[in-house]
Predict the structure.
Amino acid sequence: MLVRDLVGLLKADLQTPTLDDTSEITLVTHNSSWVVPGSAYVAIKGARVDGHTFITQAQQAGAVAVIGEGLPAGVDCPLPYLKVPDARLALAHVAAALFGYPSQELRVVGVTGTDGKTTTSWLTRHLLRTAQVATGLFSSVGYELADGVLQQFPSHFTTPEAPQVQEILRTMVEHNTDAVVLETSSHALALKRVAQVEFDIGVWTNLSPEHLELHGSMEQYFHDKSQLIHASKTAVLNVDDTWVSRILGATEHQVTFSSHGSPADWVAHRIVEHATRVDFDVVSPLGEFSVRLPMVGRFNVDNALAAMATAAELGVGVDKLQEGVASFTGVPGRMQLLPTPDDCPRVVIDFAHTALSVENVLTTLRPSTEGKLWIVIGSAGDRDPSKRAPIGQAATRFGDVAVFTEEDPRTESVDDILAQMVAGADESGTYVTIPDRREAITYAIEHAAPNDTVVLAGKGPEATMQRGATNYPWDEESEARGAISARSR
């Protein structure tokens, strides 16, 4: 693709027509440090940094064109400059074109919602693979080609940037993948990371307050999330969620589900919770059948319904749905039960990082906890501060002992974050603040009784802890196992 081809592709205004526009474009990126010879550099005006300030650096690295929303006053561009209305959308558009629009060659499922995205995504891909459908996966835990080998993204993105999305989708096509399940965050939607992905099915799990530092309001958060549904041919919708009424009928075809008795296409009833599983019956367009889900928590029934309804839309029958659900081994860091000796408390790792998900985890584990219910929890820095007090309240209201600690403080003071969590703590609740997460985990596991449960919440399977601008290696499971071993010794 030549620079002049980009002008027509993006309907751009070439503001430097006297410069050479015949250079070939082989890559597109918005990060000047990722530029290689032949790159188109997209200068994005961010909240803190304007990408236009790195044009010279991009040119020196081999960029042959710059795309942006307009040159700032006093900034010169020695390369062909293409002015577009939306730089992020242009980034996605060029990336899809360079990789040959790979999503058109796949059956693509997008899963969005505040809670349940990851479990629903993993279970959907498991059901498809059970039915011998070669299926790839994008998830906050990492990504998989159809071979099932989990690989990690190089950053904290639930969904990477548009060029990486398109590159991995093309790799999936080249590895004979038939379908892909893409966990689709609100950031990915709002920042146009999946703007040029063609979704066959969009799944909506639920909506509750989160990421308002990006979206600004619940109304905008809903708007950004709902882009997935509007972009999909078929919608799979949780009608128990109060926001869903506003997107009913937004797609050519829709399928609904409910675990609370609402009229829907897929309905779960006769739900029975056990210590290590949930049994329930399903009434669906495929008929009525029973399901045994080897996960704890009634809320996972919603995730299972969403996954089964989605897989059924892609041709999976009842026998494979039952087989797939029964053989699902769960998601790393999601209600993950660690092995412990008899003299240690039960230890569970979970990614819960909102007030609602903290409540769900604690109320799920309460019936099977003979002693006290502990939770080690923090709240991320440089993210929505309005969620911190509600998390503190949920941790102390639904748990017996809360240990407030760090969770990717980034550039904020850990003490300030913990103070906001403490401000929301229930007046009758018991809590301690231990800023260092390793010390917090050790404290909880050392002080809990053998019949207690200790929940390590918020980090889940994440491989780093971000302090300041640096990502330090982090392994929640390893830290927990070390504390368990130390207690036993």
